[in-house]
Amino acid sequence: xxxxxxxxxxxxxxxxxxxxxxxxxxxxxxxxxxxxxxxxxxxxxxxxxxxxxxxxxxxxxxxxxxxxxxxxxxxxxxxxxxxxxxxxxxxxxxxxxxxxxxxxxxxxxxxxxxxxxxxxxxxxxxxxxxxxxxxxxxxxxxxxxxxxxxxxxxxxxxxxxxxxxxxxxxxxxxxxxxxxxxxxxxxxxxxxxxxxxxxxxxxxxxxxxxxxxxxxxxxxxxxxxxxxxxxxxxxxxxxxxxxxxxxxxxxxxxxxxxxxxxxxxxxxxxxxxxxxxxxxxxxxxxxxxxxxxxxxxxxxxxxxxxxxxxxxxxxxxxxxxxxxxxxxxxxxxxxxxxxxxxxxxxxxxxxxxxxxxxxxxxxxxxxxxxxxxxxxxxxxxxxxxxxxxxxxxxxxxxxxxxxxxxxx
Length: 408
Ligand SMILES: C[S@@+](CC[C@H](N)C(=O)[O-])C[C@H]1O[C@@H](n2cnc3c(N)ncnc32)[C@H](O)[C@@H]1O
Hints:
Blueprint: H1 2-10, H2 24-32, E1 39-42, H3 49-56, E2 60-65, H4 68-78, H5 83-103, H6 116-125, H7 128-141, H8 147-161, E3 171-172, E4 180-181, H9 190-204, E5 217-221, E6 234-239, H10 249-257, H11 264-272, H12 288-297, H13 305-328, E7 329-340, E8 342-344, E9 347-349, H14 351-361, E10 364-373, H15 391-397, E11 399-407
Parallel strand pairs: 1-2, 1-6, 2-5, 6-7
Antiparallel strand pairs: 3-4, 7-11, 8-9, 10-11
Helix pairs in contact: 1-2, 2-3, 4-8, 5-7, 5-9, 8-9, 12-13, 12-14, 13-14
Bound molecules: S-adenosylmethionine.
Residues 18, 20-22, 44, 46-47, 49, 64-67, 70, 223-225, 240, 242-243, 249, 273-275 line the site of S-adenosylmethionine.
């Protein structure tokens, strides 16, 4: 069995960079415990690791996320690809974009809905040549009629923007959602690399070629606190909730989303609803229930009030997510949550403790809990910042907790 799982894990390559992806090995292990065909849900799907693995094994897979780029990536990664048709369309798009480029002035080199704030943002992050090339490409992609093909082309374009080191923007570390501007001229030209990026998308797909007869995966932009699913309709929920305060996904993703027609104010609105982001502050910490939960999470009194409120909001949000998960999972179903604990201003915060208690409150009983080391390249948590960051603390920051629960 182990050899089989290793082989499967090696077949799943990310289609697009995404911070804090779930380790595929966790998904394979969880799926392997359940033989028969299931309806699998990831309500905070991110790049779609759960969906891709579940679909490969013939399960019905459903994913939700509030971040439009996550939705796009998860859809692209879990969808069927016809490589010949995609290549043909990509070449056509590139040719049309080249022609469009000749008549495009720099003043027009913006997405059509961009307001002044968004235009200034684009000028800051993209040099004039790439602004023109990206405008030409995005205008051409938006005219592609077939929505599946269009989705895959957007994914290929976005891969050129969301990179760690070299991409079509002037920034670095965008794929880790910590963008900072380092270049005067972008290292890569959008039109030169576009077809290469399309090839990468094709290569990462597990669903190319002949008809495989697998059920399709469904991905929607939906808030996990309000799931559009019937009661008791899901066999397995497998998800990794946001790692509190560790990653502001939209900070990096907006460099790509602006080219797809999102304005900065649209993105701010989405971000304010994202669980775990720093903007989600303002919740009440005084009621007995919340303050008890907070005290289980760590030494709250060491943290400023603003941060305590942020944690209270996280707890309140996750309370709603767990209520929804309990509602949609079948009485004989399973819930697996992969939770990262975090360090905020040098204080170790056990998100997993709060989630375990909340789950129990909603009638999800803990069956098992295990800790797993994060490989160095997946250590996305912020670096320790104070005297409290001793060796033991650093060790714990390399771990994530896997909670397996079942309805009572
Ligand atoms: C740790 S990531 C998931 C990574 C994913 N397991 C993967 O393998 O790529 C957490 C995700 O939760 C999403 N999220 C945050 N708030 C949400 C909400 N209210 N509803 C749904 N998804 C949300 C974030 O956008 C992010 O994609």
